[in-house]
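User: Show me a protein chain along with its predicted structure.
Assistant: Here is one chain, sequence first, then structure tokens.
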Amino acid sequence: MKPDYKNWMPKGMVLTAVLLTVLFLILFIVFGCTGLCSGTLKTVLFVVFLVGTIFGAGVSLWMIGLYRAFSYGGKRQLSRQIIEGVAEYVKLPDGGKGLDVGCGSGALAVACAKRSPKASFVGIDRWGKEYASFNLPLCEQNAKAEKVKNVTFRRGDATALDFPDESFDAVVSNFVYQNIPTNDRQAVLLETLRVLKKGGTFALHDIFSKAKYGDMQAFVEKLKSMGYEKVDLIDTADGMFMTKKEAAWMALSGSALLVGRK
């Protein structure tokens, strides 16, 4: 049995975009290029369905490109590269505990658990309808396929973690907080760091753009003033995980890794 970490660009979204494009094309041909209607109405329908077809084709090609880039079985395997890259920052002592916030299909939690066989890891997620292919049974199935027994999964809310302060020796996350509907994502980061033990490490990867997070350099300085050590914001869209060109067309510009020690 092989693990199935799915794709960060859900196949259903890709198929929906393609089908809508095909629908617009059919409507364009039927109403814009035949004699079913005439005059102003025909002109309007011609323009509307033509624009819909062109826009849909562009979106479909973009989604297909993302799907191919993120595929674990494809040539680029960007998802695997990011997961393995983030996991390298995790330092767990024997008997330690780690937490993956927003574990999705379990890839990062499993990767971290494999690196620390004498420690344990917990992956939490709300598994919302936006990513319907990600779920608790899938995570457990992937851990079993990888023969990793020191990882467990449960439902959880990143904005209000159901753990006491200083519960974990390491906390990680990947492309999660950007999807949370809130005006203060820095507060969500602090909620994650709340459950980190003194001396514990963190590696949080996301699109830390100013539009989504505000001034992240100021946040880094804030953490340092709170006693956090070796805090750094590492640009991962400048050759580390992807090139600037890739980040631009994938809408991942601003991707960075927030790392440090409490």
